[in-house]
Every structure is written in structure tokens, then in C-alpha cells.
UniProtKB/TrEMBL annotation:
Residues 312-366 are annotated as: Disordered. Coiled coil: none annotated. The lineage of its organism: Bacteria, Bacillati, Actinomycetota, Actinomycetes, Mycobacteriales. The keyword Iron-sulfur does not apply. Residues 108-207 form the Transposase IS204/IS1001/IS1096/IS1165 DDE domain. Residues 356-366 have a biased composition (Basic and acidic residues). NCBIfam families: transpos_ISL3. It comes from the Bacteria. This is Transposase IS204/IS1001/IS1096/IS1165 DDE domain-containing protein. Transmembrane segments: none annotated. Keywords: Plasmid.
Length: 366
């Protein structure tokens, strides 16, 4: 021992009262010229750590508070417990917590998640035995995933979606693992396939039966559709024609999106659509703002308000439905295209066809 110094670290509180320890620490010096440390201070295992003014017990309490409430709320709670710590220190202690060691799991789940929806995606690795995430990867490329699998061997079953990059990554990184698909992705893929089939063959669907004369055209059985020459239809046809015209000039989807000021996903959907009917069938379900506002209103109240909207002054606030922003011409145009359903029948939109197929028989009548 070459010298000593006094150290006063803060310890865990007792009855909301701060506790300060007064320690005498021995210091040792190294005479070796090639030693990078040169000075060594004594540490008490389980009590003190290097370069901290808190004991291990107090640091553990601050970590628990920071993980539970963090920030300002954590600082207020710590003050009531007798721990004087700022919100910035709480966050700094939480960030300094080391990550858990990545353990190999025999049943591994691989899926993507959005860091920035539509632009940046990452990959999450999940231990399906415990249901806890194992690691996060910065992207969803096959090289990144295969490198991770090679660095963490031991996966016997890999559950993934239908992404080709993940399939290739598993073949390279874990060639002996069995690749399976989870139930959610199977159902989701089946629903998507059924909906695409229904949309593709929508012209072959039989027309709905004519309603009886005494069918009431108000209430929950009213479906409001847009006029065939509405603004949505005209805009969709114009964009579809413009996209296909540029696509025939061998322009890429990104170039078309920049020139027409559209999203790349929208341009890709327009390119793959054979006609505008398919686009309209997937983007418009026949419901207007008036339909959503009228939902849940009694038949008598709806009849009275519909009568007012057709007979009263456009500025009369009583002529509008709850939450409805349209004026009288909008309501009149919407109610002029009402399509009543036949009593006793249940109609559903095309996007509900997939759910209707995969639902249990006991659930279809609901």
C-alpha cells in the first residue's frame, strides 16, 4: 500500500433518509513503466464500483425507478424515497445498463418491423419458447440475417413469414434448421389471396336480390354509394392512365412517383392493376361520411334529420348529423344513391370476404 484516501459514496436510503458511507480506500502504485494503469484503488465487491459516487445497492434502486417511470416522474418518486437524482441522471443510468447476453434458442422467430413505415425496416429475432425478443437487426436483408444466424448457432426450428430474403438467410445461416410459418402469417396470406380472388372475379358475382316494396330505406340497412362519375373515380382514372403512359416509356417506379408526386406504393399498385375497376374495388367500399355519421341513430331520428337536410336551409345546423361536416348538397347527393338491402340478408364488402372464409362456421352469422 502506497497511500490512502477518503471516499463517501451514497448508499440506499433507510426510511426515506439519505445514507452516506465514509470509507478509507487504499491506493496502490505500479512500478512497471509499461503498465497503462499505474494506480490501483481498492474496491469492495458488492458495495463500490469504479468512478461512481453511489453504491451498487443505490444504483440498482435508481435503475428500477428509471425503468419503471423514467424522466421527471422518476425524479419525483426518487425524491419522495430520499434519493436525490435528476431526470437526466435517471435516463443516463438506464442507458448504461448492459444488454443481456444473446442466448441461443432452439425455436427462433424472424419477422420485420418498421423503423419508419414505408421506408426503413428492421428485423426482430424472437425466442418463441419464452416469447421474448432476442435481438434487433438494423435491416431485413438476407446478408444481415444470415450473418447473425451464423454467429448464434443452435436454432432447430425457424418460424418466419413468406419473405424470400429470410428464406435465403436461413438456408445460408442455419441450413439444418426446419423453416415453418406461424399461424398468423398463414391466416393473413389466406385472407389476402381470397380477397384478391374475389376482386378479380367480382364481375361474376350475382347481383343482390331486389328489395321488397315495404323495405324501409333508412336506419342500419342503408348503404350509401358514390356516383359513378364522382371525383374519386375521375381522379383514379386519370392517375391510372398517367402511370401506365409513363410505365410504357420504361420509366422506373421511383421516377414515376417523383414526376407525378405520388407515393411509390401507390404507383406500384397502379402499375399492377389491369384496369381502374380493380383499383376502385380495393380503395372504396361504398361508404361515405354520411353513412358513418348515421350509424347508431334510431330510425325515427334519422328520418327526421334526412327530411330536414332536404327541406331546410343549408345553413341550418339541425339538418346535419352528429359529427357530419357536409352541407345539404352533399347529403342530398349521397342519399340519392341509396341502395337498400333486402330484409333478412347480410351483405359485406369485398374486403370482408377473406375473413368470412377463414372464420369458424359459428362466427359467420355474426
Amino acid at each position: 500500500m502506497h497511500s490512502r484516501y477518503r471516499r463517501q459514496p451514497a448508499d440506499a436510503t433507510i426510511g426515506a433518509h439519505p445514507v452516506i458511507l465514509d470509507l478509507v480506500v487504499r491506493r496502490f502504485f505500479c512500478d512497471n513503466d509499461s503498465c497503462s494503469a499505474a494506480t490501483f484503488a481498492e474496491q469492495i465487491a458488492g458495495l463500490t464500483q469504479r468512478r461512481t459516487r453511489r453504491t451498487t445497492a443505490l444504483t440498482t434502486m435508481i435503475e428500477a425507478i428509471g425503468l419503471a417511470v423514467a424522466g421527471r416522474a422518476g425524479a419525483r418518486l426518487a425524491a419522495r424515497l430520499g434519493i436525490h437524482v435528476s431526470r437526466d441522471t435517471l435516463l443516463r443510468v438506464v442507458r448504461a445498463i448492459p444488454d443481456r447476453p444473446i442466448e441461443t434458442t432452439p425455436i427462433l422467430g424472424i419477422d420485420d418491423f418498421a423503423l419508419r413505415r414505408g421506408h426503413v425496416y428492421g428485423t426482430v429475432m424472437v425466442d418463441l419458447t419464452s416469447g421474448r425478443p432476442v435481438d434487433l437487426l438494423p435491416d431485413r436483408t438476407s446478408d444481415t440475417v444470415s450473418t447473425w444466424l451464423q454467429a448464434h448457432p443452435g436454432a432447430e426450428i425457424v418460424c418466419r413469414d413468406r419473405a424470400g430474403a429470410y428464406a435465403e438467410a436461413v438456408r445460408i445461416g442455419a441450413p439444418d434448421a426446419v423453416q415453418v410459418a406461424d399461424r398468423w402469417h398463414l391466416w393473413r396470406n389466406l385472407i389476402g389471396a381470397v380477397e384478391k380472388t374475389v376482386i378479380r372475379h367480382r364481375k361474376d358475382l350475382s347481383a343482390p336480390a331486389a328489395p321488397p316494396d315495404d323495405t324501409e330505406e333508412i336506419g342500419d340497412n342503408t348503404v350509401i354509394t358514390e356516383a359513378p362519375d364522382g371525383r374519386l373515380v375521375v381522379r383514379t382514372r386519370e392517375r391510372h392512365a398517367a402511370v401506365h403512359e409513363l410505365h410504357t416509356q420504361e420509366m422506373s417506379i421511383s421516377e414515376i412517383a417523383r414526376q407525378l408526386n405520388l407515393n411509390r406504393r401507390t404507383v406500384r399498385r397502379f402499375v399492377h392493376a389491369s384496369d381502374t375497376d380493380e383499383l376502385l374495388a380495393t380503395s372504396f367500399d361504398g361508404r361515405s361520411h354520411v353513412t358513418h355519421c348515421a350509424r347508431g341513430l334510431p330510425a325515427r331520428t334519422l328520418r327526421r334529420r334526412m327530411h330536414r337536410c332536404c327541406a331546410s336551409d343549408p345553413g341550418d345546423h339541425r339538418a346535419r348529423l352528429p359529427g357530419q361536416r357536409a352541407d345539404r348538397p352533399s347529403i342530398s347527393a349521397a342519399t340519392a344513391h341509396r341502395r337498400p338491402r333486402q330484409a333478412g340478408t347480410t351483405a359485406y364488402a369485398q374486403h370482408q370476404a377473406g375473413h368470412h372464409v377463414v372464420d369458424l362456421p359459428s362466427e359467420r352469422s355474426r
